[in-house]
Design goal:
- About 5% of the residues are buried.
- α2 runs antiparallel to α3 (about 75-100).
- The chain contains four helices and two strands; from the N terminus they run ββαααα.
- Strands 1-2 form a two-stranded antiparallel sheet.
- With about 130 residues, the protein is mainly alpha-helical.
- Helices cover about 75% and strands about 5% of the residues.
């Protein structure tokens, strides 16, 4: 193929198999990640991951609703979105604390869950107060 750009003629030879190689290596990496996740991740962490996915989808739906419909009761939208983001962050912290492969944080899973519940209670009291 010959390309003319500001009077300069260059010849470009396309690489026909670059896309298929990248697609193949991408698929291989995703399959390897998924297999490793299924085999090596404990059931408790998988449940937390599903909850994180649910919270993420909830936040996306709230934001899309805000963009498409509007933000008339802005405090309500903001309170709901802050609740979603805060719960997501607290759940990520819970996942980090109960992960058996991490060695830096020395807490029991029961203590981590109690902290998670207490912080969620404080977060939602603030959110309810913000809604008015």
């Amino acid at each position: 193929m010959i390309l003319s750009f500001w009077g300069v003629v260059t010849s470009i030879t396309p690489l026909p198999c670059v896309g298929s190689i990248m697609s193949s290596s991408y698929n291989k990496a995703v399959n390897q990640f998924w297999t490793s996740y299924q085999v090596n991740t404990p059931q408790k962490l998988k449940i937390i991951d599903v909850f994180l996915l649910y919270i993420l989808i909830t936040g996306i739906v709230q934001f899309a609703y805000c963009v498409l419909v509007g933000t008339f009761p802005f405090n309500s939208f903001l309170a709901g979105f802050i609740s979603t983001v805060g719960t997501f962050i607290l759940t990520v912290c819970l996942r980090i604390q109960v992960n058996p492969s991490q060695t830096e944080i020395k807490t029991t899973p029961e203590r981590a869950f109690a902290d998670f519940l207490f912080c969620n209670l404080i977060l939602h009291l603030v959110v309810f107060n913000f809604m008015g």
